Each structure stands twice: as structure tokens, then as C-alpha cells.
Amino acid sequence: MRRFNLSILIATIALLALAGCPKPPTGNTGTTTGTNTGSTGGEKRARNYNFPLPADVKSLDPAHITDTVSDSVAQRLFNRLVKFDTDGSVEPDLAESYEISEDGKVYTFHLRSGVKFHNGEDLNSDDVIYSYSRLVDPDTDSERSNLMSYVAGANDYLGGRAESVSGLKALDEGTVQITLTAPYAPFLNVLCMTTFGVVPSSEVERDERGFGANPVGTGPFVFESWTPDERVVLKANRTYFGNVPEIETLTFRIIGDESTRFENFRNGTLEHCDIPASKIKTVNDDANLKGLIAGEPAMDMYAYGFNCDAAPFKDNAALRQALNYAVDKQNIIDNIWGGLVTQQNTIVPAGMFYHYEGSVSYPYDPEKAAALLEQAGYPNGEGLPELTLNVDLQEVNKQVAEAVQEDLSRVGVTVKIERTDWGPFLDKVYAGNSLFFQNTWLGDYPDPDNWLYQLLCSDNFGDAGNISRWKNSQFDQLVKEAQVEPDQQKRSDLYRQAEDIALNEAPWLLLFWKNSSTLVQPYVKGLTITKMDRTPQLNNAPIEEVTYTD
Amino acid sequence: MSESANSGQAAAGQGRRQGEGSAFWTYLLKRLGAALPVLVGVTFICYAILSAAPGDPVRILMGQHYDEEVANELRSNMGLDKPFIVQYGMFLGRVSRGDLGRSYVKNLPVAEYLAPKFSNTIQLTLVAMFIAIVFGVSAGIISAAWNRSFWDYTLMLLAVAGISLPVFWLGMLLQLLFATHLGWMPVSDMSYSGNPEALWNEVGGNYMLWLWHMSIKFYVLPGVTLATVPMAIIARLTRSSMLEVMKLDYIRQARAKGLGYSRVVVTHALRNALIPIITVVGNNFAVLLTGAVLTETVFQWPGMGRAMVEAINQLDYPVVLGGVMIMAVVFVIVNLIVDLTYGLVDPRVRYG
Predict the structure, then answer these.
(1) ipTM score above 0.85
(2) Residue A212 included in any domain
(3) pTM as predicted
(4) Which of A314, A347, A398, B121 has CA 20 to 30 A from B99's CA?
(5) Could you tell me if residue A437 is inside a domain?
(6) Domain span including residue A128
């Protein structure tokens, strides 16, 4: 009796195991895959691009994309009216051309004809109107509805005071007109964000909630499947209006552990990968790996912020300047980051129409720091309370914090490092309960507005981006003036003045720009990594242009 | 002789079972009923801790462009603006209707999100426990049967090492050796990420080979890594339990009857030594079923452990609570099965 039970148990387990086995592909598929390339390795590569992601996708609905990981996938599924070129300039995408009115308030877009959604439906101007309106539809609950606030009537629609967004009009099937409440120079840049991806109204109406897990767009890749925490699979869009991808499948593999990503790359099962901080030495010492690095300084800032709305930093620019002079940034760059980051000397990163070196800079100068400390009322740090520095849990960020701690202790400033999870970190810093904290920003678009206005204007005081809680009315006026100025030369001049004020006032402790340093397999060609890319997500890199060689 | 004794036991067992039938079912119902307060208690504690923990899920959700108005709207939609006890009441109400809610972060219902994770964890656990039981029990028997021999010392040394080795380190070591350097095994994941049809052609239509590359080889390294600790515990426990039993009179009796040593060890001694082993196997099983965070992280196994850690980091309350409920149910059921197995192995055990 008992033996019988045991054998039933074993048989059941065996059956279950068998039932769980994958089934072989049905029918003879030999003809479909063919032998168009020589070696089996080449054949495998020619079909699939393995793209690592450091976390799972949250939603692939443009209205709900808030993180770079989801954005990286959605980039390949949707088109906007305009897009960023690899050098960061705006170029037409779904729009064939566009005009901006004299007063800078009315944008007219002429759509490309014959664009089809992945489900076969034609794209027309109504889809564009629909996609933008739903960002401010109270039922959509878009986390990014504030990006629409420049469009006339958007806030009325969001507040339920209007039937539609008055600033969005379809003039005919192929023309869209957008009217702004006031001129806003970076508007085209904002339209390049994935939030403004055009979705088919029919699909979204059918199942709005399910759309984020089953997206339909017009992009170079078609959504195939999403297995949470494992992978997202896309297929090449063979009827894409732009460059039809040469690769057939784009598999996003979700690998949270950085060293596992790295080992997968070395094992040849990823086409590119980031360089974990813990492996920088390994990579630098290995000539083969070092030869595979691509990338450049990105618009990806790592700095510290001072809380300028609380003592001792409030109204004490000398103290903030002193700390800037006291930190040996080159030491951090060389010894912690192995040269994979670039020193930050300005607020706005390089690589856009506007470039400015700044009239002030903060080289390592402990003597000047000491002099400024005295001027600030804290000679040799006396009288200055212990500063708590808030950073997140990443190991490399801890190392940087320790280097800063040591440098500051040399001029008499005592720092205590407090490392917390991302959630508590945000809570503390956003609520203004931290005096000294990690301040990071990945540029949304290559326009100074995304840095100077977004991060330092008092309009965005606190939560909204200006977490240093710095206020300067002259600065505010300059960056707001620049927003409505259509002439780029004049805008640049305004931003120069504004940036000088900010650099002088030093609301941040400038540290470095991260590079988009990426390891790329030698047979991968045409992968252009841009300034706007954070690795390994590579949001802006056009994967559709990738080809393989052997 | 021993055959007849066995069948006699079986007959006696059956006779007793008929008389005891109702007691058994009462016992089962009682045990299952006791699970309910356990679930309520566990989720309440969990909800309380989550609510008290620092951090705001909406803030994490919003990313780089925080907007207070939008955030408040989201908070009220999620019910996060209500007091803690009301939120917990709403949660209980939903659960009693069989609805675990929707993940804040993933655009999915919790049950739909966690079901495949749990299934992946079960698969890895079965593989790991299979390895652990087969090798652990064998090692224990060998050590006990040839007590104080070279093999006894070697195996027990290995067992101590197995218990002491950090899982994370062992996993990375195996990964580096067998995946990166030798290239025999995949570095991570649980199935082939390329095109299955292309692979089918590459292996020339050999089903077993295809299955190996498609799926089986992905289980080897995480399975061995996860098996190490339970294997070592089982080996040591089997050894001590066997040595205990081997000292008893009936073993000497069996040997005196002229039975072979191996037969006495396997059929007479092992059976009586099984009770503590089953307890340990059961406990380890339950622990592994709740997800092995470290192993799953090293090998990117999409199981419960990783899902839970991620949910906690993102303050995805519905997923955390759903996961905790699944874990609590697993413990209750596994413990129950362990208790029932005692009776199966040892007829002296009664339920009541």
C-alpha cells in the first residue's frame, strides 16, 4: 500500500515534469530559417539582438512611461512627430515637415502619408490628437500630464472644464496643429520624448489598461511578448517607413545583477552591456575588452546638492563654494571610476546648440577652500555642525561619498554618510529634510531648459526638480525669458548669464558626468551610442540600424 | 520473515485507519482552519511594517518629473490617502473576494504576476531538493554505515563546507567556472532566449539535445547552488539519525538472523531514521519554496525571491502582501504534509 503511494507520487512528479517541457517546433521549419549565412554562429546572430535591461519594464504605454528601462523598449515601438538625431538635433519622424508661427505659439505638422500601425491600420491626424489628448484625460491618470501644460486648453481638459483640448486640432487627415499658451522654445524637444509616442485610438479604446502590456505602435519593431522579470521580445517591422531593421528579433533580457550582465556579455550571450563599477579594473586590464568600449560623456549627471533653504547653507554662498574647492574630483574620476566619468565644470552638459565653459570653475584647491570657509564664518570648519550626506545604496556611490568625506575632513568639515534605499532617500531629499545629498539627473532632451529651468528655477522649487531649494530672482527671470525667446543666439546669451549666476552661487557640489561607456561585441556594427544614452538602456541609440559582420 | 512482518504491519495499519478515519479528517480540518488566523496575522503585521516603513510608492513611481497634483490623484486612486486601518480593511475585503489587487508598478494583477514566479520557484525547488535528497541521504548512509572511515570524514568535511559556504559566492564561482570559462552552462536565465526554431535546426532535430539547450541546462547551476545547504544538512542529519538507530537492539537482531549488512542498513535502519530527515526536508522545502533571493539574483532566475525583493524596494504593497500570503500558505501546507508523512513512514504515529 505504502509502496504503491510512493510510486504514484513519483509517477505524478515525472508526468508533471514532462508536461512542463517545451514542445519542439511543429512541422518542418527547416525551410523558413534557411541557410542564408555560412556558419551556424553567424546565422544565430543574424536573427537576434540580445539587449540587456537592468530592471523590468513597468508599462509600455507612452502615457505611463516614467523610467528609462520602459522607455528603452517603448522607443523602438512608437514614433513621435519629431525625434532626436544621434547628434541630439531634432528631426522629423512621423511628421514630414513642420512650421512654427512667427509668434512661436502655433506648430503645424504635416504627417508622412502611408504610415501603418503594427495592426495594419492607417495612421492619421486623429490618432495624434487622440494620443496627446489622453495624456491629460483625467481617466488616463498619466504620470506625465504636466508635460502637456504648455498646450492651450490642456489644463482645462485635465480639470474636467472642457470637452477637448482646444490647442490640439486636426486640420485635415494629414495635418496637425498645436497651439501653445505662450511661446516655449524647447517645445519640439519635449515632443521628442516617448510620452508623445503616437498610439492607435482603436486599440487603446478597446483595452486601455491592457495596452501597456500589449502595445501597438508604428515603430521599427513590433511587440511580440513580455514575460515579467525575464524578457521582452520584439520582431522587426518589415513594413516600417524608415530603415527596416536587419536584425529579426530584438530580445530585451532583464538582468538585474550587474556582474551577471557582464558575465553574460563575456559568454557571448549579450550583444552589448554596461561596465559595472566593480569590473572597471578587469576591463581596463584586459586589452580585448578595452577595445570593445564605445560611448562618450553623457548628459547623465552625478553631483551633490546643498539644501539652500536651510542653515548652514542658506544665504551662504562662500560655504558652498568652499566645499566645491575642497573636493579632489580628479582623484574620484581616476581611482574610483577608472576614467569612465568626466569632470563636471558646468550646470549644463556639453553636446547641444548651447555650449558654455562658465566664467567660474572649481578646481581642487584646499587653500582657497580654507580661505572661503573663514569668509563663510567657519574658520577651519569650527562652528559648522556635522553634515549628513544622503546617498543611495549603490556600492560605487558609497565609495565616492567616502572620498568626499575624506577631502572635506582635511579642511575641517565633518561629514556623516547616510545610505538608504531609493524610496526613503527620495522621501527625505524631496521633502527638504536633508542638508547634503546625491543629486542626479539624466537629461530628457538636449536643451539648457531641461537643466537650468527644470533643476534650478524657483518654479520647480523642491519636489518638481529644484531639490537644492535654491532661489534667485535674477536667474529665474533669465531662464524664463529664454523659454520664450525664439532666436537661438539670444537664448544662448540669456542662458550664459543665468549659468554664471548659478555657478557663482554654487547650489551644488559639482562632481562628474557619467560616460555612456558600453561594451559592444566586435561583430555589431552601426550601433551609435549618443550623449543622451544611459547604458545599458541606450534609449536613443537606433537599434534598427545595427548590422552584423563576421 | 521480514516480508511477512511488513505485510502484517500494513494490515494492522489499514485496520486502524478505518476506526480512525473521522479523527483524521477532523485533524485535517482543524489544521487547515488554523491557517486562517495565521494568514490574517501575517498580512496585518506585514501591512503595518510596510506602512510604517519610510518611502512613498507614488514618489518612486513618478520618476524624474514629480508633480504634486498628479501624485495626489494617483495616491487617492490607489487608496493610499486613507488611514492605515482602512487600507488594510479594503485589502482584506478584496482578498476575501479572491482578488489580490493590482501591482502599483507592473501593469498587471498581482495573481497574474506572481503565478509564473511561483511556478518558476517550484521548478527550481524540485530540482534542488531532488539533488539534495539523493546526494544528501546517500552521503549520510555511507558515513553512518562506514562510520569513522575515510569516506565518513571526507563526506562530513564536505558537508560542513556546504553549510558554511556563502551561497552567493558559491553561485558566482560556479558561474565563472562553468559558464564564463568553460562555456558548458549558460550564465543565467531559465530558458533559451533566441529563436527555438533556429536552435531546432542547429541541433538537427534531436529532441533531447534541443531540450537540453532550450531548458534543462539552465537548471543545473542554480539547482546545484540551491541544493548545497539542504544537501549538507540532510547528509549530517541522516548520518547522526542512522548512527542512533544502528545502536538499537533490533538491528543487532536483524544482523544476528544472518541478513546482509547493506540490507539491514537500507531496509531496517533507514526507515526508522527517516522521521527527523523528513522534518528537515519539509522545512527546507518550505524555505526554498518562498524563493531563494541570492541564488535567484546570481542566476537571474525569475522566481519569488527576486520578485519579492524588487517589490519591497519599489514599495509595491499589493505584490508584497500577495507574496507574503502565498508564503504563509506554503508553510502551512508543507508543515501539514510533513506531519501527515510521519504517519505514512511510522505507523506508531497517530492523529488527534
Answers:
(1) no
(2) no
(3) 0.82
(4) B121
(5) yes
(6) 82-203
